[in-house]
Amino acid sequence: MNMRCLKTKHVVWEELDGQTLLIDSRDDSAWLLNESAAQIWMRCEAESVEQIARQLARATRERLAQIEEDVCGFIDALRARGWVRRAQTAGEGMAAEELAFESNYSAPRLKLFSLASGPRRRPSPRGNSGPG
Q1: Structural contact between residues 83 and 41, judged by C-beta atoms closer than 8 angstroms
Q2: What are the two backbone dihedrals, phi and then psi, of residue 92, each rounded to the nearest 5 degrees?
Q3: Which residues contact 12 (CB under 8 A, 6 or more apart)?
Q4: What is the b/e burial string over 76-97, where b = at least 16 CB atoms within 10 angstroms of the residue's CB?
Q5: What's the pTM?
Q6: Is residue 42 a contact partner of residue 97, using CB atoms and an 8 Å limit?
Q7: pLDDT, tens digit, for every residue of 45-86?
């Protein structure tokens, strides 16, 4: 439970309209994170899983055991996709930063989708406005 995770280099993330989008540059798959999942993602290098769960429990007044289970489940899902890995040593993660939670806790629910739009066409001499 005192484990720290490191984000892998092939995952990029962006905050859009209050939500966080993770994109795997290897296959263009993506996850749209809710606010709680985004907080876990942003803190996973700086803090241990235990510290993240304690902060969420304190900020939301939810049961620590339930939040620990949710945090571990989310981290396990990220590890299964190869988006985070365990830090080998205690000092391998980043220095801890204080981040404030702005709203109540909600269990991390993820939406998995692909950014691929199908086969690409070459533009015609007239552009993409008509049949090529």
Answers
A1: no
A2: -75, -30
A3: 22, 23, 25
A4: ebbeeeebbeebeeeeebeeee
A5: 0.63
A6: no
A7: 888 889 999 998 998 888 999 999 999 999 999 999 888 888
Residue 17 · residue 57 · CB < 8 Å: no
pLDDT digits (tens, 9 = 90+) for 96-115: 333 334 345 555 665 555 55
Run of H or E residues at 52: helix 49-60
Q: Which 3 state secondary structure label does DSSP give 110? A: strand
Q: Which of 94, 89, 98, 110 is nearest to 37 (CA)?
A: 110
| Burial of residue 47, with CB atoms counted within 10 A of its CB: 0-12 exposed, 13-18 middle, 19 or more buried | buried
User: What is the rounded CA–CA span in Å between residue 57 and residue 128?
Assistant: 52
Q: Amino acid identity of 67? A: I
Say which amino acid occupies 96. A
Q: Helix, strand, coil % (nearest 5) of the chain? A: 30, 25, 45
Terminal C-alpha separation, the chain: 57
Q: Which residues pair with 85 in a beta bridge?
A: 6
